[in-house]
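Hi F.,

I've been meaning to write this up properly since the lab meeting, where we talked about keeping a consistent format for the predictions we share between groups. The idea is simple: the sequence comes first, exactly as it goes in, then the structure tokens exactly as they come out, then a line or two of notes. No screenshots and no reformatting. I'm using this chain as the first example so we have something concrete to point to.
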Amino acid sequence: MKADLPVSVQRAPSTPQLRTFGALAFVYLALTVGLLRWAGEPGPGDPHIVVVYGIAIMLADLFTASLLGALYRGSGRAALLLLACAYFYGGLMAGLHMATFPGALFPEPLFGQAQTVGWLYLAWRLGMAALFLAAISQAGREPSALPAARRDRALFAGCALVLAAAALAASLAARSTWLEIDGDRFSELGRGVQWAAVSLCALGLALIWRRRAFNDVLYLWLGLVLVASISDLTLSNVAGARFTMGWHAARASLVVSSCLLLAFLLGDLADDERARAKAPWLPAAYGGAAAVTLGAVLLRWFLDPWLGEAVPYITLYGAVSIAVWFGGVGPAVLATVLGYAIANVRYIAPEGALEIAAPADAIALGLFSLSCSLIIVLGEAMRRARDRYRASEVELKEHARQLQRADSNKSRFLAVMAHELRNPLAPLRTGVALLRLKHQDPAARETHDMMERQIAQLTRLIDDLLDVSRIDRGKLELRSERVPIESVMRTALDTARPNLDAKGHTLTVRAPPAPLFVQGDAVRLSQVLSNLLNNAAKFTPANGRIELSAGEEAGRVVVTVADNGVGIAPEDLKEVFDMFVQLENPNPASAGGLGLGLTLARSIVERHGGSIEARSAGRGQGAQFIVRLPVAPPPPPRKANQETPRAQPARRRVLVVDDNVDAAQTLAQYLRLDGHRVESALDGEGALRIAEVLHPDIAFIDLNMPGMDGLEVAKRLRVTSWGRGARLVALTGMGQQADVARTREAGFDEHLTKPADLHRVSRIAAGMNGEAR
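Output, unedited:
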């Protein structure tokens, strides 16, 4: 059995449910206020009416308790256990109430004396209100992790305690000598106890509101039960006596409140959820239909002073509708047959025989049967449509969760893959630099240049993957400042120049006539334009024409990259910015890439409050990519600062720490060629042992190492007398702002992302200033 509660009990209420709660609460308030004026008027004085509402309440409460108990066994939610006990207690007390009400089941009370029934009624209402309050106190708490066997024992113990409480209440009520009923009128003491029950119900409503438990649909329905309880107790108390209009209205309201939670559980549990909860749904559906039918009979009985014996079936149509809605055809047929039998005995054949005494009776029966049949057919169709809708809604939500999970897994995979690919790139880049230094002949130099270009291309692809992952997870970091668009264009041109020159393209640059500024991340905006220029170079045949221009239009900086290349088909214009989309390129030599450049460009531009658009007259007609960004005012002028003279390179003691053997050895060898004394370590413990002897001036430390990681190594170095003045550099595949913050906190001075720029590594090793990345 699954341990989680069915969705329909745990879910937040829908807008229609909230509106239904508001409407029904208003109806209860309006009816209560409207009936107060006539609450003391005399009504039907037949004590057998107690049997009708008593059986209805007993059936509704016992079957509600069975459903709640089954749901508790499946979920371990303490509130369900308390509610199950509350309704089990209500069903038992309803039976005791009938047994002790004079003239209901027996001419005299089955046990006790005349006051017993009154005190049992008060114990009934007070006990249920107290248990409701206890259930509400559990709002917001997580279900218990008790095993199924212990839940069963807890449910059994709860039922046993309820039985004991009901027996104790019956015993005390039978022996009570306090006056609760004087004839048919309530005593002041009895009315005070009823007002106490009203206070408990009001306190429960206030607690639901305070704890925001209305966000749980179960407590929404329980709140409606409390509203109905306040209504019937108020009417009963104001009426002040039995068999008054207020007393009858209170009992009718009590039947309705007993059926409310049962109607929710039967109507809102879809078929698969009933199976998961293993709830006694079918018996409860028939029991609920009988309870609702008896409630309809009670309402018709209440209307006797005005309707007499006319329209005896008028209230039964609603009962049939409710029965088919939460139970289907079988419970609806039961409601029809049971309702007709009671109405026939009560209004058509008072002698007690089920008979058709006149043609009018036959016509009335025919019309009643036809009407109920139509209600059942239409109601069943609506019920099945409702269940299909709920099933499809659950299926759609599950598909949405699966898609979200798959998207999240994809983003994590991209991030992990990009990070892991950085590690082997670091020794490759360092190794190529070492080969260049050792082999100076032209043929080897060409090979080194090729290898460096391919490593740079692979690094760019990895960076694109990592950026896509950051965008998907909402973690792309922007360092916003006011930057001139011309500076962004120059940086992008420097980045894209090798690809443009390699194919002999003619580049035209049109700078804005006056300086234009944008608010944004200069590095990311340069990345956008360099991606567009690289795309133009790739999809334009050799010796083509490419133009980069900028200007202002309607308060926006407009940057355009245009080419006379292969163009874009009209049907592809909307897809070019989608992830991993690569358009057909007639030049196979220009193929390559992952189809991420334009996706990144669009995401970065939109993060800056701008837009990007692709235009083309068709295949072979070239293409234009237009970036629009909000114009920013120019920054205030800055005072010129004189550059600090650079420190002269010096021989330093350097420690390289990396669990990747190739990365550690190649970087150490590269730094030795710069004249430094270099030692390397493959783990944190080894690094600390070497550092005790070496006393390094500079330490390049990888972060992700087995055992003691780089952060811990830095912290331990910083507590030594010689380590306080050392320059610690994090050399890692992790380069987000949060990673930089962690390294700063651990005591690092610099943060380099693999594969690091070796010229920068050389400058840092020589004691020259570097900037954290």
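Notes:
Residues 359-438 form the longest helix (80 residues).
The CA atoms of residues 83 and 135 lie 6 Å apart.

If this format works for you, I'll send the rest the same way.

G.
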